Amino acid sequence: MRLIWGSRHQTSISGSITGDNTSSGEEIRMILAGHLQQLLEIFVPGETLLLDLRSPSDFAKSHIHGAVNLRVPQSFLNIADFHMLERAFADEQSRRAFSRWHKSKCIVFYDRVIEFPWECPTAETLLEKFKREGWRGQCFNLKGHYREFAVSFDKYIAGDRMTQESKDFADSIRQRSPPTQEEARQSQKSYEEWLSRLGAEDRVPGADLDAETFEKRMAAVTEHQQELEAEFMNRFPELYKKARDLQPAAPDKASSDNTKGKGHDNFDRKVPFVEPLARGIEKMQDASGSRTGYSFPGEEGVDKLGERPSQDFDKIDPKPSQNDTAFQGTDSKLSEEYGAGSGDQKKSSRDRTFWKRLRSSGNSSQ
Fold first, then answer.
1. pLDDT of amino acid 94
2. Which of 49, 144, 156, 190 could be bridged to 104 by S-S, CB 3.0 to 4.6 A?
């Protein structure tokens, strides 16, 4: 049963549309690949919770060491408690890793590409749940393409194709003893210094995100949520049904009765399922004409549900990385390994996918 995503109940992704290190909602910050590499050097696995939002096929092929794959729509997140959330993971190891979220110093979300905080509504919704339970850590989104991190810092990449360096890193993690009190204090000090550097850095300049481009990108995010809804219903039908049954009853019974027999028998149940998502869209639309953002990196032929996962990692866009100190030195490696031959693949004749539409709207803003 698909949800109805009308203008009145539009998906809300509250927060800044600037895409820089300004806060979104409950202080979700954007970090670059170099920042994440530094963070992974500070904490041992378990102290940082990494949530991979890509498709299961992409995750199986390549993911950051220690990450767990979370693939759920906003409608489920707003209803589910933590027990239900744990059931949304495909394997027991991932469930155990997620269940220790309260022990994490920080949580990092990443997807195929995230350019603005509001393009990752999962992060905001989960952070609100964590905060309500008393968690006091920090939450971050990896800005840009996941594949840029995977190529630049392949030491931290696990999956079907691992370099020798990444295998050695995984072995060292398994053999590592729990940190001593002194090591824990040093890690905390390094983390605080890392946070200070992150806060002191100037934001990366970018092109204006005009109102038309913003609306296109928001529409793409909303459509992606609809597709996640259908995917989740197919993968976890019982869990989907349980979440749907937990929805509060619609307040206006008369309105519900008027729709019966007209193909909308469940609309009164669907509306509360997405109603909590409507908290920030008006502010974002008002701000879209006046705030500045970032141009969107190009990506060709990527399927939003992972039907062609090989393109996600095999084909690297050789565009220069952002001019940020945390990412300096990665451009040459990207160009050397993947720049040659990047134009050899033919463009797909399929309809434009979620990620390609985002790229198109990003280019139109320049």
1. 93
2. 49
